[in-house]
Amino acid sequence: MDLETVVAYRRAATRDDLALAPGERFVAGGTWLYSEPQVGTTGLVDLTGMGWPSIEERDGGLRIGATCTIAELVAHAAGAAWPARPLVAHCANALLASFKIWNAATVGGNVCRSFAAAGMVSLCATLDGDALVWRPDGGEYRRSVADLVTGNGTNALAAGEVLRAIDLPAHALGARTAFRKVALAELGRSGAVLTGRVDADGAATLVITAATERPTVLRYDRLPDAATLRRAVEGVTGYYTDPLGTADWRRAVSVALLEDVREELAA
Ligand SMILES: Cc1cc2nc3c(=O)[nH]c(=O)nc-3n(C[C@H](O)[C@H](O)[C@H](O)COP(=O)(O)OP(=O)(O)OC[C@H]3O[C@@H](n4cnc5c(N)ncnc54)[C@H](O)[C@@H]3O)c2cc1C
User: Fold this and answer.
1) 33 C-alpha to center of ligand 1: Å?
2) By residue range, what is the domain housing residue 236?
3) β partners of residue 204
């Protein structure tokens, strides 16, 4: 859509270009930004000119540049050898109308939009994704993607901070994974996404996204038994109600589907 308040657009090419003037904000793929009015935004700073590599292999892990498109990540994973690769396509397909937006929507944009039903947040929270954030003063810091997202549509990024990349560590890429999703409509936005992984040393990570306002990450030294997991999932706080499902429904489907994930990982 036309953003009628926007009067300036510039394409950032260097880190200095990322300093935002009043009224400016970052744009990556623009699939959300151009989808609704952005009252108060007068200028756009395009991150896609930064030239960040989309995918880099480092120390057995993967660095995903923030401007990597979801389509690029899916294509890379399809040809990869690491055991966790099927989770990438599952999480990308968890996005509503994914085929329409994959080629433009970026991994960083999905994380920074921070919707509860953000498929790339599901992926990164499950694979211990570590966000590298650039501060406007030239500094940087790291925070897990699971902690970066603070609510349905909110995150811990301060004004002017830019997500540079997400690192997925080798131990998570080497894990066995499982995935379940439910939505009220067949092609609708996810009401609950349940994911899990078991590492080579047996440690288990079970994750709830889309059903809770922010990622819920449950960690165990070994896969828990069914009763232990059920108690944990029932006790989670943050299930929410919106037109796509009630909090009680989200809790109930999370209990049932995370048990499916546990059983698949135990097999
Ligand atoms: C048909 C359709 C279906 C959709 N379905 C879903 C869905 O199921 N789940 C979902 O989560 N979203 C969905 N979206 C919203 C959106 O398309 C996705 O979240 C997408 O991944 C956003 O990525 P983008 O690169 O287009 O971000 P943009 O639209 O460019 O930016 C999104 C926000 O993130 C900020 N931003 C982008 N990159 C960075 C960065 N590197 N550092 C700091 N800030 C940054 C921008 O300033 C903006 O506020 C949908 C959109 C459409 C049109």
Assistant:
1) 7
2) 173-266
3) 198, 220
Q: Does the beta carbon of 205 lie inside 6 Å of ligand 1?
A: no
pTM, full prediction = 0.97
What is the mean pLDDT for each group of 10 consecutive residues in the chain (267 residues)? 88 98 97 92 97 95 98 96 97 81 95 97 98 98 98 98 98 98 85 98 98 98 98 97 95 98 97
Task: Please list, in sequence order, all residues whose beta carbon lies within 8 angstroms of the beta carbon of residue 99, skipping any fewer than 6 positions away.
Answer: none
CB 201 within 8 A of CB 186: no
Note whether residue 3 is domain-resident: no
**Domain-located, residue 159:** yes
Question: 65 CB under 6 A from ligand 1?
Answer: no
Q: Kindly provide the residue ranges of all beta strands, DSSP E only, lying in 5-97, ordered along the sequence.
A: 8-11, 24-27, 43-46, 55-58, 61-65
Q: Which amino acid is at 64?
A: I
Going from the C-alpha of 22 to that of each of 40, 43, 50, the distances in angstroms are 10, 9, 21
* Contact 52 CB / ligand 1 (< 6 Å): no
**Whole-number Å distance between alpha carbons of 159 and 184:** 35
